[in-house]
Amino acid sequence: MGPERRAPAKSYAAILDAVEDRLRTGQLRIGDRLPSERALAEEFGISRNSVREAIRILDALGLVRSGVGSGPSAGAIVISEPSAALGWGLRMHLASSFLPVVDVVAVRRLLEADAAAAAAARREAVSDPEAEQTLARAAEILAALDDPALPDETFHELDAQFHLTITSLGGNEVTTTILGSLRQATVGYVQEGVRLLTDWPQVRLRLQEQHRQILAAVAGSDPPAAAAAVSAHVEWFYRRAFEHLEG
Predict the structure, then answer these.
(1) Across all residues in the chain, what is the average pLDDT?
(2) What is this structure's pTM?
(3) Is 170 exposed, middle or buried (0-12, 13-18, 19+ CB in 10 A)?
């Protein structure tokens, strides 16, 4: 058997590697604009079509935002939206049935319980004005969620904001990003499952009770209670919405 032949590297890969290197070394920063298509094509000796392919990939990865035309909004600007990119990737693999929804929910439950415990521990360790503002924001979201006339789509959006607000209080940006992507990946399944619930108004009330338990545990600086409240909340809602959908 002869030596294994490797597929030739895609021409646009040189731009992806260069962007990674320049971000890591500080030559590129969030808010900077990438060089023009022509300049990149000349620098890397590739076609403008290959440059466009690289920009499309960076856009899908949540690393650039592309604008057309001329002026201050034109060109590719460096951004950082990792949860959106991860969320889209997970959604595609969930749709292909390669990743089971139940496994995604299990990971979310573990990570979010740990994040809630970290948030409660942070409250216990120091007096932090920023943490107080974050808790106040979470309380405001809960108050908005109490409105029985709130459309379901808005309820789900605010529900996600509440959870990510509590998660952010734990101080781990990677955890917050991953949890944001996990929620994005399963939102379609949640909405479909909710539409099949005949007692959705009662479920909303129960969810709000659980949200208040989570907030009280975090505000009360009780890490074990915060973790337990989040874990029970995620598992309960999964059983009502997702398993109902599968059944």
Answers:
(1) 86
(2) 0.79
(3) buried
